[in-house]
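Cross-posting from the modeling subforum.

Setting up a comparison between two proteins and wanted a second pair of eyes on the formatting. Protein 1 (sequence, then structure tokens):
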Amino acid sequence: MSNFKPSLTELAVTSKKVMIMGIGGGGDVILGIPIANYVRILGVEKIYLGGVSSQWWNPKGGTRRENFVLAPLVYDVAQLEKAELWEPMLAHVNQDSSFNGKRPAEAAVSEVVPWEVFVGGLSDGVVGLRDSLNAFITNEGIDFFVGADIGAHSFHDGNETSPPFASLISLMSLSAMIQLDCPAVYGFAGYTVDAEMEIEELDERVGRIMRAGGFLGAYGLTQKDVSDYLKACEAFPDPIEPFVARAAQGDLGLKQVPIISPWGRRAYVTPLSAIYLFLDPKIMVEAVSTGVKALMDTRSMEEAETIYHEVLGQFPETWAPRAINYVGKKEHL
């Protein structure tokens, strides 16, 4: 009898229902679209596409140019308007769903995809998200789950050249993923485009996971994927997500990525940025993302933030000032 772990492809060809969730907040729901297209071709009949309740909204309105957004807002999915609660921390959204007058990425993306779209809530910590996902998985007969991510921010092990900038949300989602009652796959694209890690560092960490037996296949964007992906990026503009589709169109090389500071940060976009790599999340956590385990039993954002700061020694992105204005009128001295 074979001891091989099934790849994402092998899981899909024997499955009928799948949940695909962008795990880092913001526009990560968009990352799920090519994966959804792929598993549909492989015979999956029912697809649920979603993200988590962390949005980089401008707190004062206006444009990103007027206020540079430094921190996400983690909101309670129960407070979404014109949405349906499937579970306490799982909301079914549509194009009219909103929170305090702002549309989450998932609501915007629901306009341009044919699948039911959801938001997984983080306000009750990892336990709240885990329990709601597991209840839905059991009730709906979900065959497997995919967590979609971008860049490098889930691969920090504490030995990086630069500290992580926006890892807490992804690590919380990853912590819930390794506790699900169905097979789970971590899939990421946009290799290093989030400027969270040097490419040599990410290579080392991915290699460590591969050596431990955690590689579950790969998938490259098709031309249809690129078209669908960019439509979603138009529906919900995001500063990072488009780099995946642009890489598939040959827009490669050094880029100034508009994140982390008003001046941005350098990222190197390669052909690999247009490829999804699929990994075993449990092996990933054991081999690299060891901080995930410290978050497993958290029951609130506050508890997760405290552990991330005091136990893991990192500064939560949710603690940063929401925004800074750096375009204001020049003072004459």
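Protein 2 (same layout):
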Amino acid sequence: MRWPAAVVVLALGVLAWSALGAWTAPAVTQPIQFPHKTHVELNLQCTSCHERAERDSVAGRPPTALCLSCHSGGDATEEIKKVQAFEKGGEIPWKRVWRLPPHVYFPHRTHVVVAKVACQACHGPMETLDRPPARPLRTLTMSDCIACHETRDGGVETAARPVAVVAGRPLATDCNACHR
């Protein structure tokens, strides 16, 4: 009679742990409180800073030299002074917030340049933030990816109609296209 009680206690413990958020991504604190909103208000696009998104699989973090091309002198806020402290070399030690499982292949270039998917579709409304998010704004699942691939037609959302082609290329819903 001890096993059923132990299983019930264990199950309740797991449920409580889950409810308290123990299985969510840990909160991340960035070294600089980068205001995406301010930069978007200056008409900068996501790819103005995340340049690699247009040419690589990974969007990457902006190099410090890119930040300093605008913020290298004059009156500076405390956060800009933190950026300037890296002027003598070294990169800002940004901490990663978004992370896909290691077996998932997601080429940013294909989605950003070819399919013209808005960054917000996966990353959420980053342009509204006055500081970096502590956790991902969206939690992506495989069904999110599949739903997008099955309903996009030339970059335009359609009613649940299977996709034939985007930018002259067929969209893959084959498992091996993303799982490597």
